Each structure stands twice: as structure tokens, then as C-alpha cells.
Amino acid sequence: MNPTVLEIQNVSHSFGKEPRKNRVLHDLDLKVNEGDIVSLVGPSGCGKSVLLRAILGTHPPEYGKIIVYSGDKNQEATVRLKPDRDIGIVYQRYSLFPFLTAIENVAFGLMVDQTKLPLRLFRPFKWKALRKTHLEQAEVILKKVKLGHALDRYPSQLSGGMCQRVAIAQALIMKPRILLLDEPFGALDEATRSELQDMLLELYAENQQAKKTGQKPPYTILLVTHELSEAIRVGNRVLGISMNWDWQKAHKVFPGATFVYDKSAPVFEPAQAIDHQAMQFQKDEIARSVFDPGHLQDRNQDRESFGDQRI
Question: What would the pLDDT profile of 89-108 be if each residue is shown by its tens digit?
Fold first, then answer.
């Protein structure tokens, strides 16, 4: 059993005041287990970005709680009220420092997290030793994301896909409890997108190997994507959020989007050829449950029970 990393409890969120209140999210409940890659899909405007900001801690929910568990023996719970290193995020538009090389960009977070300006100015020998350690760690991460050959290149010398790999390495080096990926491959061509999907599958394979040897799986990821094939291929679990559910049975006004789909997905090997025909049944199921405005189902109808796997 894997411990729960992230728990969402009865989360609802809205903007504005009555009578023009915009209800965005309604009564969300979710547990994400350590080592999972969960794909999140949903129609445009359904609140995916609002949910990510709530998980990140920049915009706490109006109602309910978002909790991150420590993963140690005590399994301490922290309610998300502000950003910290427990949650990392990578957006579709990567943000790299143009005046730093790839390895310097990746090491930058460690510098900010582990040192202060007075130490760097007045204790040069200690800073030099720390700097060497940071760069060594950054090199390891960049090699993991297949950029070992581009350590000293500047962002202007890298392709869009390579820059996105650097951005993911920036997040991974901080060892977050969970990494949020917000449409990270949306602006990339199909070939580059497939390569980066393979990279995520390699991280999942590393998780599986860690579990086999009794170690903690190092990567837990929540991936927001609009591509159903990508959601199924990369995630071992697909979660759907939608405005299309039978809210009229219990509410007079629309209360917000909610989770309407939550099922396991087949696990693929890195570089494994995509069998689109094999994916088609689940794609059709997701399209009906999540995206079809004429299919107003019970919000629990297409959800599996993943159980409470906290230690």
C-alpha cells in the first residue's frame, strides 16, 4: 500500500457575490497516492486551473481543505494555505532565466532554498562547496531528462522541448511531494510531445522499480492535459472534472464543476508504440462522461474506489 500524498476534502470555490456569484468547483474529494501519475482532463472553463492554484497554495479554496502529507513515519498533514517546496509546478509556458545556462537554471532553486546572500558574499569557501554540490545535483537531474549533452547551453540555444525539460528538471530537483504539470506539452509538436511523454513514463518506471526494492517512489505527478490519448498513455489513473453532471437533482442553481470520472489507465512502457485502437474504449468513455453536455450522469457513476492507502 502506498501512502497518500495529497488529499482534497470537500473543496468548493466560487467568485463574486450573489446574485452574480460564479460557482466554479463543487464538493471535490480526492486522494492521490505516492508514486502515481494522475492525468486530469475536463472541458475548457471547468475550473482545472482554479483547482491547481488551490493545490499550489496561491489561492486556497473557499470551502474545504487541501492537505499534503509528509511521507515520513509520522505522516504529518499540512493544510495548503500558501506555496512551499512540497508542491512544484510546471506551466505550458516555461520560465527560464535567459542569462543562465541549463545547469545554472536547474541549480538556482537549490541556491535560493539553501543559502542567503550574506553567506554567498562573506563565506566564499562554504558557498563554493555548496555551489559545487548544487551543480552536481543539477547535472544528475538534467541527465535524467535526457539533457546531459546540453548542460552549458543557454535557453536561446535550446529548442522548445528542451526548455520544457529544463523547466521540469527545475521542479524535480526540489524533490516536491507532488509535481503539478499544467498543459506542459500543449505548445510542442507531436514528435517532441511524444518524447516528453516517454520521459514521464520513465519516471513512472523508476517509481515501480523503487517499490519493488522497498524504497519510496520518488515522483508523484498530477498532469493536466486536453489530449485524451496523452492522459491515458502517461497516467496510471485518469481523473475527469466537468460541469456536465446531474446537479439539478439536489440544487436549484448550478453549484460548480465536480469530479465525474476517476478510473485506472493501462500502464505503458517508455517508447512503447501507441495502440490507439486499444485506447479507444476508454477515450470514448471519458468523452461521454466528461465532455458530453447531453450526458448528465450521477457524479459517482464512473469513479472507481481507490481506497484510503495512507500509512
Answer: 999 877 899 999 999 999 99
Cell numbers 517508447 label which residue? 271
Q: Extract the C-alpha cell encoding 170.
A: 527545475
Q: 292 near 245, Cβ under 8 Å?
A: no
Percent share of the chain, pLDDT over 70:
98
Give the span between the Cα atoms of 64 and 95, in whole angstroms. Answer: 31
SS3 label, residue 237: strand
Number of H helices, E strands in the chain: 8, 11
Which pairs with CB-CB distance under 8 Å and at least 24 residues apart come from 97-100?
97/155, 98/154, 98/155, 98/156, 99/154, 100/154
Query: What CA–CA distance (Å, rounded) separates 212 from 276?
Result: 30
The torsion of the CA quartet 39, 257, 8, 238, rounded to 10 degrees, works out to -20
Backbone angles phi, psi at 65, to 5 degrees: -135, 150
Nearest to 289 by CA among 237, 246, 227: 246
- Residue 179, classified by CB atoms within 10 Å of its CB into exposed (0-12), middle (13-18) or buried (19+), is buried
DSSP state of 293: T
Residue 190, helix vs strand vs coil: helix
Instruction: Measure the CA–CA gap between 146 and 138, rounded to whole angstroms.
Output: 12
Residues in the chain: 311
Q: Provide the whole-model pTM.
A: 0.92
Distance of CA 303 to CAs 49, 255, 259, Å? 22, 20, 9
- CB 249 within 8 Å of CB 297: no
Phi, psi of 181 (to 5 degrees): -120, 110
Residue ranges with strand state E in 16-91: 22-33, 37-41, 63-69, 77-79, 87-91
Main-chain phi, psi angles of 143, to 5 degrees: -65, -35
